[in-house]
């Protein structure tokens, strides 16, 4: 694996759990609930009920290899991408001369559901190591502000309990998989 020089330049998230709780209560015919505790938050996130889409995050990767950026722009539900242009008329550099590894800045806005969905594919061992490392940077930032969500941002096999890949890596047959799956279910 080539060394990844990517970093997260900024990360933004606002605590809006009262809004999320109120939306959840509305779905069951109530108007408002008390600010949720950690156990309630994790239950809602694990259930993936629609109010988790009110949870918003924004970040910018800098020096992300262009080909890794392309992996992330494949995700389109609950996320917006703003990638630095490589257009010749804007940069003064002939884009046909730029290698696929040319660094770009890639800014995103995403909701809680998107964070779970992206993790399933981009933390998988079948993703490139560089892509996994770039997504792990974001997950690490999420863990600082929303540890309940971060505990649900897991690779596909851990999420499903088995590997659905056509050409899996074999991780789902390991003891480490069993530990990660158990921690995911327990919320550790």
Task: Provide a descriptive summary of the structure in words.
With 188 residues, the chain is of the alpha+beta class. The protein is 44% helix and 16% strand. It is built from 9 helices and 4 strands; from the N terminus they run βααβαβαβααααα. The chain has a 4-stranded antiparallel beta sheet. Helix 5 runs antiparallel to helix 6 (129-145). It is globular and about 60 Å long.
Keywords:
9 helices, 16% strand, alpha+beta, globular, single chain, four-stranded antiparallel β-sheet, 188 residues
Question: Brief overview, please?
Answer:
Helix 5 runs antiparallel to helix 6. The chain is α+β, with helices and mostly antiparallel strands. It starts with 6 loop residues before the first strand and ends with a helix.
- Beta strand %: 15-25%
CATH C-level category: Alpha Beta
The main sheet comes to: 4 strands, antiparallel
CATH topology: Gyrase A, domain 2
Shape: globular
Radius of gyration: 18 Å
By CATH, the architecture is named 2-Layer Sandwich
Count the E strands: 4
* Number of structurally distinct domains: 1
List low-pLDDT spans. Answer: none
Total DSSP helices: 9
Task: Name the average pLDDT.
Answer: 94
Classify the secondary structure makeup into a structural class: alpha+beta
Neighbour order of strands in the largest sheet? 1-2-4-3
């Amino acid at each position: 694996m080539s060394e990844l020089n990517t970093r997260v330049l900024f990360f933004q998230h606002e605590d809006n759990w009262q809004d999320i709780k109120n939306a959840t209560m509305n779905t069951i015919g109530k108007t408002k609930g008390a600010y949720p505790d950690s156990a309630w938050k994790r239950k809602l996130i694990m259930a993936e009920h629609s109010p988790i889409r009110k949870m918003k995050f924004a970040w910018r990767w800098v020096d992300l290899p262009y080909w890794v950026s392309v992996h992330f722009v494949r995700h389109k539900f609950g996320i917006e991408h703003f990638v630095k242009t490589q257009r010749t008329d804007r940069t003064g550099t002939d884009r046909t001369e730029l290698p696929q590894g040319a660094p770009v800045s890639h800014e995103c806005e995403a909701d809680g559901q998107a964070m779970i969905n992206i993790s399933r594919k981009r933390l998988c061992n079948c993703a490139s190591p560089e892509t996994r490392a770039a997504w792990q940077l974001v997950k690490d930032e999420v863990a600082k502000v929303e540890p309940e969500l971060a505990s649900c941002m897991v690779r596909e096999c851990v999420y499903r309990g088995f590997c659905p890949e056509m050409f899996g890596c074999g991780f789902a047959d390991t003891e480490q998989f069993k530990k990660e799956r158990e921690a995911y279910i327990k919320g550790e």
